[in-house]
Design brief:
about 300 residues, 12 helices, 5 strands
């Protein structure tokens, strides 16, 4: 049942190397070399969920690190499904999921990272960003007119937004994440790489299934028409912001069971590097525990 490739295979295979060009055409949306059958993959996923539960308990008791998991993808790539299944074993008290929608006026009156700062996980906690600060170099890259709402100095029309603007924004994101890492936040970023063909299939399912109608909007088709623009924006974003300390993983997303397995496996593998453990009590605390046990056993 074990994955024939070993525990670190997926992490290394789908990691975006720092500083190297990225071509999403060359990266699979449905990997033929999965290394595991669907039945065995689902069993492995359950095993990873158990391990993730244990790691979360140690993370909380250790109170030294926090975990930030970022999901970015085109519509219908399966972000919600991944969060629902992979994170199913976590204690809800130690997890906060934030889904970032269109910025409010209050958020627009601050710098673009402000609303993400206030949603960050505290030490011992797991934070999940369903969409994230990367919307500010993806959606705004395809729709630069949206940036006019930010009232930025020197930006009065889309033509004012040049290459140096995006370079500066990438640097600001990298600095933001480096500061988090330096202060104990482990950042894992997942790009769910879905094909245009699979997206079409899932859109049709949403239209045909009354229980999924609410998930579909005609605006989704407008964004689908800009597929090539988004792909280009994703490629540059991945290239400019995948770092050894805050890596991007581009995960095949056409097969949902495999997507979940890969992401769970990577999270468990990466958190395993922290060597998390429960706090070790000192001699005095051991004496107090022994005394407490003695008193409890004397009761009734």
């Amino acid at each position: 049942m074990a994955n024939q490739h070993g525990t670190e295979y997926y992490a290394e295979k789908y990691r975006i190397p720092e500083g190297k060009p990225v071509s999403l055409k060359d990266r699979p949306t449905d990997d033929e070399d999965k290394g595991v059958t669907k039945a065995d993959g689902e069993s492995l996923l359950n095993s990873d969920i158990v391990q993730l539960t244990n790691l979360q308990q140690k993370l909380y008791s250790n109170n030294r690190y926090s975990i930030l998991i970022v999901f970015q993808a085109m519509d219908a790539a399966g972000k919600d499904s991944v969060i629902k299944h992979v994170m199913s074993g976590l204690n809800p008290q130690g997890v906060n999921v934030t889904s970032f929608k269109t910025p409010t006026q209050q958020e627009l009156d601050h710098d673009f990272l402000w609303r993400h700062y206030i949603a960050l996980p505290a030490r011992g906690m797991v934070g999940i960003f369903n969409r994230s600060h990367y919307e500010n170099v993806l959606v705004t890259r395809v729709h630069p007119e949206y940036l006019l709402k930010e009232q930025l100095p020197g930006v009065n029309k889309p033509e004012d937004i040049d290459k140096s603007f995006w370079e500066r924004r990438f640097k600001e994101i990298n600095h933001f994440e480096k500061t988090l890492v330096d202060n104990g936040t482990v950042i894992l970023k997942f790009h769910l790489h879905v094909s245009k063909k699979e997206q079409k299939k899932r859109f049709l399912e949403r239209i045909d299934d009354p229980g999924k109608n609410w998930k579909f909007s005609s605006a989704d088709l407008n964004e689908r028409a800009l597929w090539k623009d988004y792909r280009k924006a994703y490629e540059e974003m991945l290239e400019q912001t995948s770092r050894e300390t805050a890596p991007w993983f581009t995960v095949p997303a056409d097969d949902k069971w495999f997507t979940r397995l890969v992401i769970a496996n990577i999270i468990v593998n990466e958190l395993g590097r922290l060597d998390l453990h429960y706090p070790v009590i000192n001699a005095q605390q051991k004496i107090e525990l022994a005394k407490a046990k003695e008193d409890l056993l004397k009761e009734g």
